[in-house]
Fold these 4 entries.
Entry 1:
Amino acid sequence: MKKRFWEILDLAKPGDRASRAFDIFILTLIALNVAALVLESLKPIYEKALKLFHAFEVLSVAIFTVEYLARIWSCTTSARFASPVRGRLHFTMTPLALVDLFAILPFYLPFLGVDLRFARAVRLTRLFRVMKVARYSEALRAFGRVFAAKKEELVVAVFLMGLLVLFASSIMYFAENDAQPDHFSSIPAAMWWAVATLTTVGYGDVCPVTPLGKAIASVISVLGIAMFALPTGILGAAFVDEYRSQKRDQRVCPHCGKRLGK
């Protein structure tokens, strides 16, 4: 029974109608929770249907809590979490299990003696319920595998972008501080201009006025196009590799119909 629970709670396999029905039910509940969170921000609607919103929140948390506890109970049927104690602790520390926890945690905080003001502040973590979709979407799982495969390259790219922002804001501060002490009062203040320029957003609220500043801004703008396109290239190549890998895994023998694998 425990194994069957784990199969139903996990991503549905072909032909498993019960698991598929459960996936659709949870995805629908997540979508309704997101819609409720959005509608709660409209005070006229929220005040008129206050009891309905509260009842739906209680029902949703109850379902998500039972799901979370059922996953912890049945996870030991998986080889990764076979140990009754360590296996379950390991499972609770996995990213998707943490998402499940954060999706229900704000509801229980007031009952644990947490300051209600803090509890209201962390209610926004209900948005974690959207991330539960990743458990049931192969496309989102592929997205996660792509990020995991290219994490070193992405870290390097982000580090280089940070250096470029620091360099651009520093040099522009020295070039424009005398002419615009209000806009370029410090290097941290100049970082707003650097980010807006390097990302090619160009809001126009802060811009150089001196000839030197304009010349530097021109070079930085060109560098920004190249630098911020770097993560796009890394992720694009990784997605192509992931797609090809999936295609190889899905190949079947034309004679016996068995999967050929890699």
Entry 2:
Amino acid sequence: MTATASSPAAATRSDRPVWWLVFRQELDDLWVGGKALNLLILFGILMSITAFLLATNSELSLTPPRMMIVVMVQSAITFGLFIGLVIAAESFSGERERATLEPLLLAPAGRRQIALGKFLAALSPWPIAYLFCVPYVITLSQGDLALWPVLVWGAIVGTLTTVAFTGLGMLVSLWSNNSRTSLFVGLMIYIVALLPAQLPGEFQATAAGAVVQAVDPLEAVRQFLLKGFIDVRPVEELWPLLYAPVLATVVILGVLFLYAAPRLRLEADAPRFRWLTAGGSGGVR
């Protein structure tokens, strides 16, 4: 962070809230520094590969257009929330490594405002990433009437899951002393959330499958899109699938801004992560 966001004098002179100053500075670091652009380039490559396979593979090309739409929107959500998770996972742990967190904490600002500014900045690539997928979806839809409903619902549930995973990444970062630890934990969370999609379809109809959908917001969103637009289930049957992403978002944001952010310190108070950091100590200073 530069003096614009971290200097007490600058914060005092400005009539703008501190979260806005932090947000603007973080945007500069992400976009001018190139990190967000690099992640979006990776997103574009992955989306291009997915669309190319769907359009040209001899077996996949026989997939109905509606299924292609759902697969592309699911891919956009899966890749898009990964960007927010990665950026958020380094938000505070990276500051600790660069020794730039102390000036930020000395600014006359509530720590919730600091967390809010960083949180909003970490979310900033998501709408751009989702809009990036729209041309691919339109091309593969072949005029299917489900195109715009899927895109609208994808934006809604994708935003919910992205907010939840971004908040989770920030929690991990708050409780980590270095970005290596926070990125590792964030990656493990991401992989675990993706695992249910690799299980056989028959598993989803079992009691265990229902439990997974109730606790894994990413899997719940996948099932919501599949059942809503491939199986064409009535909306009233699908509402329970939205409980997981909504509840995860509310709980994670509640823990982040009501509990964790006000306790932000120069060193992470997270003994649960010490085993991941060679020789690290997690005491509060």
Entry 3:
Amino acid sequence: MSPKKKIDKKLPRRKSKPKNTNFVNKYFSIIVSVVAAFLLGVLVGVYFYIDSKDLEIKVPQNKELQKTLQESLTYEEKTQAINIEYDKSNKVDTSFQQTKKEQTPFHYEEPDYGKVDEIIEQEKTIVEKIVPKVKDKVTQIFASKKDEDHKPRLAIIIDDVTTQTQIRKIKNIGYPVNVSLLPPTKRHPNSAKIASEVEQHMIHLPLQASSFKFEEEDTLHVGDSYERIEAKVASLREIYPKAQYINNHTGSKFTANYDAMEKLFRALKKHDYYFIDSRTTAKSVAKELAKKYDLKMYSRNIFLDNNKQKKYIQNQLRKAIKKAKKQGLAIAIGHPYSITIETLKDSLHLLEGLELIYVEQL
């Protein structure tokens, strides 16, 4: 047999890529990568460059703002400190000049006397919003009391009285005005003797203030023992045998102190005194302790002469009249300044329809 003839079966030839194509593809990808890396680097560089510029701008602004705020705060604190010092010195000094002209240099009240009314009004507004039903009930009670008495009643008290001249001027006002006498001291030794000249009179007892430069001699303090307070009240009973009511002179610190007021009310109860709270502080605990000791007491509604101008005093009197008509009773307190007495004397026409009373009628 003849050998089989080898048959070469060749596969069809693949078309080979040109060599130059592989070279282009290889280096093209390298070039793209380099360009991409370069662009990424540029972008990152630009980003950090811009961000650093922003930081350079922001940091000084923050420092400047911080400095401004710090300076503003410092200025505010300094201003507040100056105002406090001004209130403590200038207001008192003004009172001193006024009272000096009237030859009564011991008649001083606390620097923040006038602010108490604002606080009380704010508290009243809050209460009226929260518990309107209670307010209506209270109004009904006062209204029924007013119907019983037919006329709204107003008690005007003049504090700090120490001289016969003051009493004479008060008597000439033309209608009932209560006289509250400061206890006798070396500076006004006759304030108990002249009590005999007014049948209805009160005692204006000095109590410790929160901040006060011109404290009365023998003022009662929150740290005083019961024996000391009781002895003081007992001495008042001896020199003012006809007096029924005591109200506080200054006393923003004392009347807000529960322990001190408890001692005082024990003594008042023992020596048959009633109490009128002058409300030199909105934090007074007098009402709470009056209930505890079953002691009759009332609270002042209006201060007449925080500002010693006729228009202001008359407007305050109108407020007191409005309260009296609404509640059936109101208590207003003033001082023996010439302008106060003159204004009251000229305001008789405003009091039509009211019953002006002495505190003994409460």
Entry 4:
Amino acid sequence: MTLPRESILSRHRIGVLEPVWWLLALLVYFFFPKHLAFASSVLVMAMFALSFDVVLGFAGILTLGNAVFFGVGAYASALIAIGGWHEAITGALAAAVISALLAGTLGPFVLRLTGLPLIMVTLGIGVIFFEAANKATWITGGDDGLSNIDLAPLLGWFRWSLSGGASYLYALAWLGSLFFFTRRIMASPFGVALQGIRENADRMRLIGTPVLRYLVISYVVSAFIAGAAGALWTQTNAFVGLGVFSLDTAIDGLVMLVLGGIGGLYGGLIGAPVYMLVKHFSQEWNPYYWMFFIGGMLILVVRLGRGGILGISSRALSRWHGVRAV
């Protein structure tokens, strides 16, 4: 049964409990000042998971290639800073645009594929970029990466520090801006059309929808977000290495999204802190077998029902008080 457009758009109206996530994120700054560097990484990975939600949750594009755009944004940001442009916001914006341009170039060719062929091609592209970055030591630094990335104080006032205070607020501002930008797109007729393509691309073609063009646009939007996340990863760590291109990075983002809930926009924002906290504490407890905890948690969440943590909590709240969480 096809849902009416009003029903689909209503999913993206502000829920009663939705401001709670942003309030908690802001309170972290005041109550956990010694852990803001780690918290900044959580926000960056939440942004990366959000980029996955655009292509997978809304457009139905099965890809493992978003780490390419994350890595390109990360290295582009580093090279921009090393080249002499030390302003962080415009540097991150330029890096995100470079990632989006790359997606716009690859998209018309890659997105003609679906299913397993698409997964394998995007995986292959990721491997190519990883090896290219490994060999191009004169640009990327190879195994050593790029370090000593100097940035000017944010807005000319807030200095970067090891404590991570400025980094955290900077990452939170970026995440909030990109989230609400993405929300506006996905709540528009274009976003509704993307969901129609996800459900039945052939039917959308029959009614005259330019399917490939819409998919490419969603791919570009996703790459822009992933590139911005990569840029912030470099800027907040003052370092970038080959790991940003690795398959592990792509899988981390995908697992975060699945844990939180695909197709709800807040899935990545919920899944990222849960995944990274469980990973952090399980690695401290046992550095060799910590993946057992991640795997068990993932199986448990998937088996309990569709929609990840977000779906489970929303259904529980609806049955209890009839409240839509997010």
